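Lecture notes, structural biology module. Today: joint structure prediction for complexes of two components.
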Amino acid sequence: MDPTPSTAADSTAMESSRDRTPLGALGVAERTQADATPVEERDVVFDCQQVGVRYSGTRALRDVDLKIHSNAVTALIGPSGCGKSTFLRCLNRMNDLIPGAAVDGQIFYHGEELYQPQVDAIEVRKRIGMVFQKPNPFPKSIYDNIAFGPRVLGMKKDLDERIEQTLRRAALWDEVKDRLKEGALGLSGGQQQRLCIARALAVEPDVILMDEPCSALDPISTSAIEDLMLSLTNDYTVVIVTHNMQQAARVADMTAFFSVDQGETGTRCGVLIEVDRTERIFTNPAHERTEAYVTGRFG
Amino acid sequence: MQATHPSSAPGGRPRLAATSRRLGERAIIGTLALAAGISVLVTVGIVIALLVPSIEFFAEISPAEFFGTATWAPLFEPPAFGVIPLIVGTLSTTLWACLICLPLGLGTAIYLSEYARPRVRQTVKPILEVLAGIPTVVLGYFALTVLTPTLRTLGWEVEIFNAFSAGVIIGVLLLPTVASLSEDAMTAVPRSLREGSFGLGANRFQVSTRVVVPAAISGIIASFVLAVSRAIGETTIVLLAAGQLARTSFWPGDSVMTMTAFIAGTGSGDVPTGSIEYKTIFAVGLTLFVITLILNIISIRLVRRFREVYE
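The predicted structure, tokenised, for the full assembly:
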């Protein structure tokens, strides 16, 4: 499905995505401060050491060592079943909700181990928001969707103002300002997904995790959400799972390539092959398997 | 054109005409329509059977006396036909039944759907369904011979026949219905909505009460409506445990006669066909039917207004 990105074309695509700034028009500052320091030298938000996941005893992912840096977009790419979504769900303890899921290894979030017993998963998810593959607005009004997070977390002061700011931040305000009390399910798919991003932003998280946020959307909505992701890195750390390599090339500062290891008994287990700056992953990967994937020789 | 693409086979039948195999399909459609038609006809028949003697009744007794006075003694001399005590008796037992089965049923449903581990759910649900299968006559005697004496032992001077015992046991009878239907409605709410709210830092209780219950509200209200209708219509338990004393009292410890208890009790006695006593049974039955119908209409309206439709 993904055409082979030629080296030259790819890097121009990346340049142009950086230059595309409808953000200025939205009153969002451009990516100046964040761009100044190289990604690898920014603060480490997640330091993952030997992370693995088992579902009811079956290993789905093993030995992931990965650092995720602040104010950048990190993309997780790889073939189906490579554990990239599973890994993403470890970062805000979403796997806790799946009966039989067990996470091993250690994930340090700003130096604090996420899976130590004293850590409360709810506290984790307040700081690490999530956007899902399929837009999942609540069957409530647009207003109540955004207000949900602040309400459950007791951030009820200046709620109207917070909702307006959040919707502006998600580039949705102009489209919905006259129908805030209408049902969110009346929005288009792309609008719904931006609403879900706005909903995640409303609780002022530190990190936004996105699990294939554009896979159910048309190209125009996808482009709007990619612009949004780029603008978010001023204030947030973004981790995105995508099966679309061009998308990773367009939005990500860092890219991690996951793949599947076939065990001798026929079991399949996800592994991290390499992580690097996006341009290096796509132009000069260190591993043969990465190269095979990004050039389309392996699906 | 006609030569190369003949539109008809020899004999004038269009080539695309249905073959005889479609007869089977017609028969199936006919059978299904008949099945639907029979249930409609039966309903209409019941309404007519209720209406005709009721109209004759209201020709003799004015609706003003029937609905406007509070003395019920149709079998005595002089007879009195004020239905208010029966309505109050019904509302009283129904109230206690609802106070038991609605909150406990919803609580059970939330627990089973949102909190219980799969193994607990697989154990508790069948037990609940066994509870729903206990014959009402057994529950009626349980109310009369176990619950009422227990209440008295605990120091509450209830009458031997009382609205409270009967109502509570009706509530127990209906609890599995409410729990099971509500749980089904809540389980049907997509996991993505739960994950969306967990992802915002909501705790399990907030997810249950602010996302899952609103999304499942039409199913939950439907289970409530069914429970209320069945509580109003429940006969055996009230006949055995609530008594036969028609009086206008909401006090839970008092003996009351419900509309259903009157119908069943009088109908099993020796009332001559066509007499005013006989027609009274139908008038009360029609009242019961209309009350239940109005409740159903109100609750359907409520559901339409408040439900949150998810995809």
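Point to remember: The first strand of chain A starts at residue 44 and ends at 55.
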